[in-house]
Specification:
The structure is a single chain. 37% of the residues lie in helices and 15% in strands. The chain has 562 residues and is α/β, with parallel strands linked by helices. Strand 1 (12-13) and strand 2 form a beta hairpin. Helix 14 packs parallel to helix 15 (423-441) and helix 15 (423-441) packs parallel to helix 16 (484-506). Mean pLDDT is 87; it is low at 343-352 and 508-562. Bound molecules: beta-D-glucopyranose (BGC). The site of beta-D-glucopyranose (BGC) has 11 residues, from strand 8.
Length: 562
């Protein structure tokens, strides 16, 4: 297992002094045509994702409800920007079957990733609400009936209040609570679902909550507790993974077991600065590799492995070996590190945006004299203040393939673009799809791409301002509206399908791609007849049971053939 500097992301220098990622094409027309020319393997899965707290609405007693109610964090900032709360969110809890499922089918998705809300399924300790769970079972069944494979996340940042009262992830004894919940869910959902993420971004979750203090419980600089929380989550993952492996899957559907890891590339802004380069290498190791090293090999790279063995957890670390069989990759941001004035020890630096608004400080780091920023002013950025660098996804896929030789699934990739004319989303999505196709051409075993998110959602500490959705939500009536990004994605998916339907019709059998670690079946495609036309031609504003074509978007039907 390697530890050292990784290659920098490629940069194009523009004549006006600005810079851009080579895959982030400046002109939308050319981004669209490049995406339309892409080729993916026949069984490649195009998906999209959500998480319960961000979209379902009506969730009342979790660590995040409490964080919302607290209003102010330790450094004086808002716990949630402008005191917002998730509240009814997109009301997906009530609208999934009637509104969102038809949208998923019309879009032509091959998989849909969503999370199970622990506080709904186990509202009080040890008492399961099987009616709530039955609704998730029904979602899985209906998705599958439509040819869309469910991808279930067991823990996406939210835990029930009673679990927090017991001390949450800080206490090892509480791991058993999560495992009990996971087993209960897996037992009921396993016949209807073959793709599983036990945890979403355990590193980000522990760092944001216990080191940076920008997510609950809002502790700052608690280095040891951060490591304990992460370690306990991994133990929970290990036992959940065992439950998934032991469950009986549906015929011909081997289980994919993953953790959705947030891959953030840290880079030294000034290459000559050995200190920041060393720090970047360390942060890449901690953020990007440590969980996967443990879950694939049961060990960390040598010095770190020795260090943690001293704490008497050697056996636990080894027991994590082989607990995933697919690598889940979430990718959004890269962070550039620079030396500055000594800033004391303040791991999160609330950034001020151009319009004077203050961001939550997610991924902004300032500790000692080093600061890290996900935005370099020479680059174009998203509404999260993250530079738009789709090449970072390609780098993640190639690096992880080289390191682990396991199949990969992009479990999240997306952009917050709140403009009605969401050209940035179109250009970024095109870039990310090209990054994936390029990695596949280089021999990387990527099984699918999941756009984050299907719907605009409650963006944690940032509230509702960032708009990640393929469908834009009008929160006044919960109507869903198409974006330019959606039209591009649908077009790519439908071209892919018709290409492969044609080629399967003309060949007796299609050879399945070599499987490296596990045999993973492609997800059966829905028949092409339901797609496209009906949705794209709907032009009235929508209510709870339809969608509109948003005339305000710049990517017109001339750009994307819907
Ligand atoms: C999380 C999502 C979040 C997205 C965009 C990911 O890290 O899993 O919940 O909405 O990033 O910030």
């Amino acid at each position: 297992m390697v530890f050292g500097p990784s290659p920098l992301l490629p940069v194009v220098n523009d004549p006006d002094g600005k810079q851009h990622d080579p895959l982030f094409t400046p002109r939308v027309e050319s981004a669209v045509s490049k995406a339309q020319e892409l080729n993916f393997p026949p069984d490649f899965i195009f998906g999209s994702a959500t998480s319960a707290y961000q979209v379902e609405g009506g969730i009342v007693d979790t660590n995040w409800n409490r964080w919302e109610n607290r209003k102010t964090r330790k450094d004086g900032g808002d716990t949630i920007k402008n005191g917002e709360s998730a509240g009814a969110a997109c009301d997906m809890w009530n609208l999934f079957e009637t509104v969102d499922l038809p949208l998923i089918i019309q879009l032509g998705l091959g998989s849909f990733r969503f999370s199970i809300e622990w506080s709904r399924v186990e509202p009080t300790e040890g008492n399961f609400d099987n009616i709530a769970l039955a609704r998730y079972v029904s979602w899985c069944r209906k998705l599958r009936e439509a040819g869309v494979e469910p991808c279930v996340t067991l823990l996406h940042f939210t835990e029930p209040g009673w679990f927090i009262d017991r001390g949450g992830w800080e206490k090892r004894a509480n791991v058993a609570c999560f495992v009990r919940f996971a087993k209960h869910v897996v037992e009921r959902l396993a016949p209807h679902c073959s793709q599983w993420c036990t945890l979403n971004e355990p590193v980000g979750c522990s760092v944001n909550g216990w080191l940076a203090g920008i997510h609950p419980p809002g502790r700052q600089g608690a280095v040891v507790t951060t490591c304990c929380v992460l370690f306990h989550m991994l133990l929970g993952h290990r036992d959940a993974s065992k439950a998934i492996s032991a469950a009986t899957p549906a015929a011909g559907k081997p289980m994919w077991i993953m953790i959705a890891n947030n891959i953030v590339w840290f880079e030294a802004t000034w290459r000559w600065n050995v200190l920041t380069r060393a720090l970047a290498a360390f942060l890449n190791m901690f953020f990007n590799y440590c969980c996967m090293d443990l879950c694939v090999h049961g060990r960390l790279i040598c010095v770190f492995d020795l260090f943690f063995c001293l704490f008497g957890i050697r056996r636990d670390m080894r027991s994590l070996r082989g607990t995933i069989n697919t690598i889940g990759v979430n990718n959004y941001a890269r962070v550039q590190l620079a030396m500055g004035l000594f800033t004391c020890c303040c791991p999160s630096k609330p950034a001020v945006r151009g319009d004077g608004e203050v961001c939550s400080g997610e991924q902004n780091i300032a500790a000692g004299c080093i600061s890290g920023d996900p935005h370099n002013p020479r680059f174009e950025m998203s509404d999260m203040e993250w530079d738009l660098v789709p090449s970072s996804l390609g780098k993640a896929l190639r690096t992880f393939w080289k390191r682990y030789r396991l199949p990969l699934l992009v479990t999240e990739s997306g952009i917050a673009d709140g403009n009605l004319n969401d050209e940035r989303r179109v250009r970024y999505l095109s870039g990310c799809l090209r990054a994936v196709a390029g990695a596949i051409d280089d021999g990387v075993d990527v099984r699918g791409y999941t756009y984050w998110s299907l719907l605009d959602n409650f963006e944690w500490a940032e509230g509702f301002r960032p708009r990640f959705g393929l469908y834009r939500i009008d929160y006044t009536d919960m109507s869903r509206h198409e974006t330019g990004g959606l039209r591009l994605y649908r077009d790519v998916i439908h071209r892919h399908r018709s290409k492969h339907e044609r080629s399967t019709a003309s060949t007796a059998s299609t050879p399945s791609p070599d499987s490296v670690a596990i045999q993973i079946d492609g997800v059966a495609a829905d028949d092409g007849t339901k797609q496209g036309g009906a949705t794209a031609s709907t032009s009235d504003p929508v209510l709870a049971n339809g969608v509109t074509s948003d005339e305000g978007t710049a990517v017109t039907n001339n750009d994307v053939d819907c």
